[in-house]
Amino acid sequence: MEGNSSPRKNATDTKEGTPTHENGVSSKKEAEAAVEKTPLQRRTGPELSLAVQPNYDGGSTAPKSTPGCSSGTSGGPSSLSDGVQNDDSSQIYIEYKRRWFILILFIAYSMSNAFQWIEYSIIANIISKYYGVDAAFVDWCSMLYMVTYIPLIFPGSWILQKKGLRFTVIMGSLGTMIGSWIKCASVSPDRFYVTFLGQFITACSQIFILSVPTRLAAVWFGSTQVSTACSIGVFGNQAGIALGFLIPPMLVPDSDDVADVEKGLYIMFFSVAGICTVIFIIILIWFVEKPETVPSGAAASSGLAQSSASYTDIIIRLMKNRSYMLLLISYGINVGVFYAVSTLLSQIVLQHFPDENLNAGRIGLLIVVAGMLGSILCGEILDKTSRFKLVTLTVYLMSLLFMVAYTFVFDLQVLAFVFVVAGALGFFMTGYLPVGFEFAAELTFPEPEGTSSGLLNASAQSFGLVFTMAGSALLRSYGDKASNGMLASVLVLGAIITAAIKEDLKRQKAMRNACIQDGPRT
């Protein structure tokens, strides 16, 4: 990785006034004196802080919090750096403060795209009436995201692996911006094909988003923050969906006056296009490919493996990984059910509670916001416990439980109960997203995170497309109980498959091995 040579310096070089020999430490006695004088001297700069201690073997180490390692620092946002000694030279791992800015940029970009996935479906009755099209065509505005992702995931993952994060994020942000501006020209009852074209372009841009969180977390964040960073990265997609549930019903009224509907559509389309443009410009100027120094030993190992990897060989190895293949199916089922629930939510709510467009959007908002909390909480639990299979299976079973409750809660005809059950469902079902990503990264290490997570997303989109089409058909023919019951039944299968996964945490092993090679820490 870029800049790997710069940190290969001796510990005493980072301390002013300390004499050095060629091996970096004049003697054990001098090193002890330096430590006694400044036990934990910290070198700080505008973008990094690095705690360094002399090592009697001529290298340097820095406090590091890794599972299985003794540490003097916490793994929270204030964690400063990781250090590892390799053989006769020293490798220092640095976490740059800039990593949080990079993560925030990605979150904003992900939000701008995810918002547009659900902006039509949540006001399906209004869009159908305004453009004079069947509700099934409105559903396809959502399903486009699933259809386009399936064939494009392989070139998308290849681009992420070969061209890197910056190129990938710029391409996705550019496509999202172009698609959003095309929609601005679609405000006319006879221009549904224009809005469909704009949606198609934003849907294609999604391939440059969904595989990024695990890769970004691995490239920019240290071992004690990687799961949390991935969860926060997924948070952007969820936040965009949440706003997509909330804002369209507020802007576009359910009115027989075409002028009122057009005004709302203009406001929505131009606002989104403007925001996407600002995000694209900021990314173009300030989004950085990678830090000058890798943040962890696992990141270094993964980077070396990926730099020489053949994409075809990677796919073949992933297909031969039994545990990963089981996760691929179970993840696809769970997230596919979430996609179907989100797409059909408005239609189901309006069947039981007519004229409740705003509350339909609020229920969707609650599902996703609760899921954000679930994502962050699960990420924290994974970082602290490394119990990946236990957390994954627990979240899966709770998703199943509340999907069953969601199936029958509409019979009560009490909107408040729907809010409660939908919120609980969202907490676990949406919270499962980063858990699956991180479990896959563990099972497949050191394969590229973008490829393993990309295949997970392809599975989710495939199942989501099938479940949405089947659920929509059942909803029209037999009602919501049949539709939701079908979704609950497939979650049973997914839970069984999850239980069959063998927990082989390869990334955790790499971190522990790096710690063992470093020797004891203070």
UniProtKB/TrEMBL annotation:
Span of domain Major facilitator superfamily (MFS) profile: 101-506
Biased composition (Basic and acidic residues): 10-19
Subcellular location: Cell membrane
Keywords: Cell membrane, Erythrocyte maturation, Glycoprotein, Membrane, Phosphoprotein, Receptor, Transmembrane, Transmembrane helix, Transport
Primary localization: membrane
Transmembrane residue ranges: 100-118, 130-152, 164-182, 194-214, 226-247, 267-288, 324-348, 360-378, 390-409, 415-435, 455-476, 482-501
PROSITE patterns reported for this sequence: MFS
Gene Ontology CC terms: mitochondrial membrane; plasma membrane
Catalytic activity: heme b(in) = heme b(out); choline(out) = choline(in); ethanolamine(in) = ethanolamine(out)
GO molecular function: heme binding; heme transmembrane transporter activity
UniProt GO BP: erythrocyte maturation; heme biosynthetic process; heme export
Family, as annotated: Belongs to the major facilitator superfamily. Feline leukemia virus subgroup C receptor (TC 2.A.1.28.1) family.
Function: Uniporter that mediates the transport of extracellular choline and ethanolamine into cells, thereby playing a key role in phospholipid biosynthesis. Choline and ethanolamine are the precursors of phosphatidylcholine and phosphatidylethanolamine, respectively, the two most abundant phospholipids. Transport is not coupled with proton transport and is exclusively driven by the choline (or ethanolamine) gradient across the plasma membrane. Also acts as a heme b transporter that mediates heme efflux from the cytoplasm to the extracellular compartment.
Protein name as it appears in the record: Choline/ethanolamine transporter FLVCR1
Annotated organism of origin: Hirondellea gigas
Phylogenetic classification of the source organism: Eukaryota, Metazoa, Ecdysozoa, Arthropoda, Crustacea
